[in-house]
Amino acid sequence: MRPAGLVFxxxxxxxxxxxxxAAGPVLQSEANWVVLAGLPSLLDKAEVRKQLDxxxxxxLAFEVRTTGASPQKLRGGARVDVRYELWDExxxxxxxxxxxxxxxxxxxxxxxxxxxxxxxxxxxxxLPRGAGPWQAEVRLRVIPFxxxxxxxxxxxxxxxxxxxxxxxxxxxxxxxxxxxxxFSQVLQLLVATSIGRPALYEQEWNLAFQVGGKK
Amino acid sequence: MESRLPGGGQEVSWRSAALTIGGxxxxxxxxxxxxxxxxxxxxxxxxxxxEVLNTLEGSLEDQKRLARLDPARRAExxxxxxxxxxxLQHLQILEHNRQEILQRYEMVLLTLVGGVLAVAGTxxxxxxxxxxxxxxRLRDALxxxxxxxxxxxxxxxxxDVLGRIAAxxxxxxxxxxxxxxxxxxxxxxxxxxxxxxxHAHEMKTPLTAARLELARLQQLAGGxxxxxxxxxxxxxxxxxxxxxxxxxxxxxxxxxxxxxxPRRDLHDLRKVVADFAATFAAAWPNLELRLEEPPEAAxxxxxxxxxxxxxxxxxxxxxxxxxxxxxxxxxxARGTVRLRLDGTPRDVVLDVADDGPGIPEEVRPRVFEPYxxxxxxxxxxxxxxxxxxxxxxxxxxxxxxxxxxxxxTTFRLLLPRPHPPESEFS
Lengths: 215, 426
Fold this sequence. Notes:
The complex is a heterodimer.
Chain A: H1 3-14, E1 26-30, E2 33-37, H2 46-52, E3 57-67, E4 75-85, E5 90-96, E6 102-107, H3 110-119, E7 121-126, E8 132-143, H4 147-162, H5 171-178, H6 183-192, E9 201-211
Antiparallel strand pairs in A: 1-2, 2-7, 3-4, 3-8, 4-5, 5-6, 8-9
Helix pairs in contact in A: 4-6, 5-6
Chain B: H1 9-46, H2 50-69, H3 74-96, H4 98-146, H5 161-221, H6 228-257, E1 265-268, H7 269-279, E2 287-292, E3 304-307, H8 309-326, E4 335-343, E5 347-354, H9 384-394, E6 398-405, E7 408-416
Parallel strand pairs in B: 2-4
Antiparallel strand pairs in B: 1-3, 4-5, 5-7, 6-7
Helix pairs in contact in B: 1-4, 2-3, 4-5, 5-6, 5-9, 8-9
């Protein structure tokens, strides 16, 4: 392929040329929803795979918002929480989409989970009013662990720094509730609250979809 | 002792600097210790290292394997597995946040160091400002001193070099004031001495002539028959009596006018005063002389002064005379005069305190002036205190009315030490 042709293909991929690009996701109208299908093959990426097998609850979060000249601005999204149960060696998956549907799934192997992922169709936006072509920006973030796990680690870190060995009430929440007065509490708060949930992986696509006709 | 000359300032200055540096080092050490205890130790206790994570992961596999091999204890292995898994997950989450935590770690360290520096800097600025204000006060005090003020008070009791300079200025001011008072008193007494000398001189010539004429008159009257001769003898006797009184008066004036310069030798004032108390113990029937021990166990030479023993004795006699004459006559009670030695760095002090009726208020400001007396005319010329004052001034010292009240009067004799301690500006 000549360089000009390669540039064209890449442009088509990032601009949501749809069926021409097999590796990227697509948006499709379906009943009352805009559905995200053909989920990206990021599960093969080493850092993502390692995180999914860590035992922590990783979240694959999609954020979608319409763009372009249309006066109607829509926002939506969907998420898939994945936790590998280390003892039973199964993948526990929770799917939550824009329709409010929550689905809990269990996969005995990563291959099964991968198959489900490739075939999954996630409602991410309510269907816009008015027929015609639409543009949307899709953003995927892989968040390595859940908020509950984050809070639990903050609590554990605070207890470790305070030298306590037990107790369920963490120094962080205590400090937040009681307004810290001592220097050690301030330090605990400073360090413990530095635990955030930075995204492990991020990717964005600009996709087009058709409402009221063939895409 | 009344006052101390400032001294040892260099040590104080070094001590102050050492304390400041020590304080800063201590603060820095405390901050680092706190940091180590609160942050570093905890952080390293966590042991976020890849090998720890690998070990924990291996431990998880071991628990699972053990559970399969020993199903009876499966629950126990599962519990251990969950504990290990929890720890592993905490460490994994920390590993994800390693960069952020390290940044916070550095931020806290920098904040601590910055805090220490800010405190040190603020303390320095405060000290600098305080020093500037103190220097300003010293400048004002020096300006007052140079303009002739002799009551300069700086009001800086610091023990550093500025405090010592302030003390020196105040001491200089006190010395100037004292010298001015002494000079004024000397000038005043010298004037009175000159007046007394003239009066005595003017009186002596006619007094001598009158005595000669009276003798001749008595001789002439000797040839007369009684009763004329008896009458002349009686009148002549009365005139002689008056002339004798006038003679004593002239003699007192002469004594005051011709006070000799003191011939000073080194004496231990304790011994001089003790001798005086012993010698004059019975000199005044209505007085008891009592020598009190010095308040501090003084070493040899603590009361050594260069003094004319006889003149000092004369001053003490005059003071005791005043005490004895001031007591009510005929009451039979004996008063007490206490002789108490003390000292300042510059002077040896002798307090002479009686328990008499005190000096009337209107007389106090002029008590050392000649011819000022509370006694009836003819009972004394009021020269005793003036003579005593002149004697002390001629010794380079002074005589002060320390206090007087209906319960008694205290005079203070100040005699300069032969070798006063060195001050910063001597």
